[in-house]
Structures are given as C-alpha cells and as structure tokens.
Design a protein that fits this description.
single chain; alpha/beta; 5-stranded parallel sheet; 5 helices; 16% strand; globular; Rhodanese-like domain-containing protein; Rhodanese-like_dom_sf; GlpE_sulfurtransferase; Rhodanese-like_dom
Length: 103
C-alpha cells in the first residue's frame, strides 16, 4: 500500500476554484492528452518524469494525474522517493474528473 495521499476530483475542483497554490502534472501520453486536460495542468508523460524531476521544485505541492490513477501513483511515488514531500495523486484519474477540460 502506498503512503501517497489521494485527492478526489471534487477536492481538486475546490482547490482550483479557490486558486490554491499547487501544480497539476498530467502524466498521460500525448494521444491521451489530446482528449483534454485539467485547466492549468502541465503535461509530462510518465516516461519523462525522471528527467523532468530536476526542473521541479521539491518545496511546492504537486497533484499527479493520469487516466485511472495508477500511472500517476507511480509518478507520485517517484517524486516522494526523490525528496518531494507535498505530492498527491488524483484518485480515479481522469476517469473520475467531471470538471472543465482544455484542449
């Protein structure tokens, strides 16, 4: 069992609505992202996370997203192992997201 906290789609929507300071990272592949992303999300495919980690600030808060929550959990665990303390996974991924999408 992972020790990564999960955030629900509703909780994420509330955080976006209140302009809470965090970064959403979408780890899906390019063709998946073409179907829409959560507003403000940064797209870093899962396979690119190890090389991108050096460009991320370990003091900031991150919410990781994928299609169902499995790949983003892997990315969350990788960040945690590399010194990131404020990492959350979107429970159920984009399948659970009913909010706005940008293309």
């Amino acid at each position: 069992m992972s020790n990564i906290p999960e955030i629900t789609a509703d909780e994420l929507q509330e955080a976006l609505d209140s302009n809470k300071e965090f970064t959403v990272i979408d780890v899906r592949e390019d063709e998946e992202v073409e179907q829409g992303v959560i507003p403000t999300a940064n797209h870093i495919p899962l396979g690119h996370i190890p090389e991108a980690v050096g460009n991320l600030d370990p003091r900031k808060e991150y919410i990781m997203v994928c299609r169902s929550g499995r790949r983003s959990m892997n990315a969350s665990e990788f960040l945690k192992e590399n010194g990131f303390e404020q990492v959350h996974n979107l429970k159920g991924g984009m399948l659970a997201w009913n909010g706005e999408l940008v293309f």
